[in-house]
Fold:
Amino acid sequence: MKRTLFIVVSICVFILSIALPAVAQEPIDLAIVGGTVLTMDSEAHQIQEGYVAIRKDRIVDVGPKSRLERLYHPRQIINAKGQLAMPGLINTHTHIPMSLFRGIANDLTLQDWLEHYIFPAEARNVTRDFVHWGTLLGALEMIKSGTTTFADMYYFEDEVARSTKQAGLRGVLGETWLDFPAPDNKTFEAMEAFTEKFIQEFKGDPLITPAVAPHAPFTVSPEHLKAARALADKYGVPLLIHVAETKAEEQQIEAKYHARPVQHLKNVGFLEKSVVAAHCVWVNDTDIAILKTFDVGCAHNPSSNMMLASGVAPVVKMLQAGMDVGLGTDGPAGSNNDFDMLEEMDLASKLQKITLMDPKALPARSAVAMATIEGAKVLKLDKEIGSLEKGKRADLIILNLSHPNEVPSYDLYGSLVYSIKGCDVDTTIVNGHILMRHRNVLTLNEPEIIQKAREFHDRILESLKTH
Amino acid sequence: MKRTLFIVVSICVFILSIALPAVAQEPIDLAIVGGTVLTMDSEAHQIQEGYVAIRKDRIVDVGPKSRLERLYHPRQIINAKGQLAMPGLINTHTHIPMSLFRGIANDLTLQDWLEHYIFPAEARNVTRDFVHWGTLLGALEMIKSGTTTFADMYYFEDEVARSTKQAGLRGVLGETWLDFPAPDNKTFEAMEAFTEKFIQEFKGDPLITPAVAPHAPFTVSPEHLKAARALADKYGVPLLIHVAETKAEEQQIEAKYHARPVQHLKNVGFLEKSVVAAHCVWVNDTDIAILKTFDVGCAHNPSSNMMLASGVAPVVKMLQAGMDVGLGTDGPAGSNNDFDMLEEMDLASKLQKITLMDPKALPARSAVAMATIEGAKVLKLDKEIGSLEKGKRADLIILNLSHPNEVPSYDLYGSLVYSIKGCDVDTTIVNGHILMRHRNVLTLNEPEIIQKAREFHDRILESLKTH
Structure:
């Protein structure tokens, strides 16, 4: 009897041990299998042979392949063996439609550049159609260089939003306000009404976070800054603004308002939760303390600050003060001139080193964090993106690790910052959707966009001649 | 009679007008047809739809396609329509075999990096085999990012030379001298004899210019500097040396020789024709005047100077003084970490702008010149390379102009410096030979080299553990 029972139990255990894993395998939509996984989570986990499980728009699990591949049954598998999977890059400050002005006015000061080239060129050329194609061109470049989320300030921002959704990217998109007529809205009332309608249209969108983007303290009056704050509060959306970019701005604001730019913003009640301050070059210790108090995130743009000779942002100081500092490319019309976040990491690190004369000033790992999880914090999206963790959105990129510039690699963070390039990105995934595979962008018609960009080039040149 | 003569002459002229072009077409080996040609000649000619005629290793003609295609009968045609043909990039300072140490010690000071990481790692790992594979790995990356000539300082430089010839690249290759045992030669006498043999072997080679490369004023005694000068003079070869890279070097040399590095080199009689001085960061006006007097070319390495926090070279001052200043990547073992000359142009320009707080400090066109014709002058090879001109060597690259980051383009120099990337290079030609076509390197076995690099990685890591 005992022996029979033993045999029956043994057989049952044997059957269960075969059947259970198959029964227990949870269905998922997509699995990234076999590559090194750089999680950028708070413990900086790196998994040698990893597995990322994705269901719909979310990461449902991250871990070693050996453990996870028995747990999940993926509808689609991406074999990432020998490659690197990491969070998609987050560009915290840009003007994406300006891709059509790429390099139109290089080697100039910010004031000269803005007043004599960019504002006139914009007045004559920026239409809804321009914004549509400019966004698609910028999106193409972002997808191909590993950016999955960007924060934008421009005009016709509802069109930026629609084009961004078409590309499949994630965006925090701010309609720009100015005290003078903009390409889209000619009066303040029109800007305000347009922005409210834009927010209503996109609030709650899975990819788009609408925002209000007063241009800068020197181009927007205190009254309009307050109106921007009020509108942002009404809908619970972020504010994007340029702050303390140049010495000239500092002097102008001090002369007019007897306060430094950051203090002026505080005085008018602009600084509350969810402000993204681009640049923060001319900030002193008091300014930094204020920014920290109001939890203002800084979008640092090393390339732009160097190219326009605006100054060097005190990034190390801001980080030491506990501020969130992300990276941005700024626009490509003479202040970068591309959307390549891998280059921005390299520059951010090298610029701090040389400025502080300290090669340890901003190590590679900090630069990678600024381009991922810290950028997410700047945009107040760190619960959703910025790292590869269970429950977060499936925004990730897969990089080749076999190109000559990528081998050998003694430290992945160092490789990413100092030798891996944008064109080493092989696959880009946003919200669970594959936007690029083996460098083919699946959501956009690349030749058509390139052709359109060339047509705009001719039209823009013509417009500058005839006026 | 008169009428008959007229008819006969007319018929003859008619026949000749048909027959002559065919008869007169000169045979050539290769024609680059239809692309924009950026000549970088002294008048900065740009040809919209151009034609470059190549016979054997030389450019025999450059001009508009409409005129030239009737004159030449090419054996092989490269259709460059919609692309950009320009001189190959010239890297005036590197240590190519160190590709195998890529990023092995990031975020460190030069002294710490050299003494605690690089010198020990070299002592344990640098063999002839290491130099062979390291050179091939570096050459792969150079070919793929548009470099056609590089100046190198390392050990087993005869092996660098052989591997460089295998890759098909052009090199000014200096055997490194130190006052302590090097990986290849353990005594000064051995170094000297080795170098003389190396020079004898490669003097007159169509691709290789052998050179003597005493490491730096702080690592080579005056006596040995003089010996290097004597050996260079004996064979009419260049001298390569690091000069005034760090503040520490300046202090060390001043304490020991009561002179600044440049003045010390002058005092020992080292500075004569054909010296390439890498870095020149800590040079004052007097130093610059001395360097100019002796026609010393400077190899400026913006990435390395930033990454090691060595300082910012006074590039604009040196250019204003009439010095030849080229660009270099330096080695990739924690001071760059790649061989990407397009990035170096971008950095060179942006670093001068931010340092001088002047966005016009080093415009795009100057940066492109530094990477081509000025680099050729630094290496005293400007009669042979650096521009696309009749009679020069056929060293050129063809770049794609249709990638998203490349359109639209309002200014080719600006595009090259600020938005075109190394991976936009489509075709690389050196000495009339096609080394890469459509990004396939034709002279080297890429997968084999990548595999070897990974094996060296494991071996190097092991060597650092066990000592």
Q: What stands out?
A: Chain B has two domains: 24-84+402-441, 89-378. Chain B has 17 helices and 19 strands.
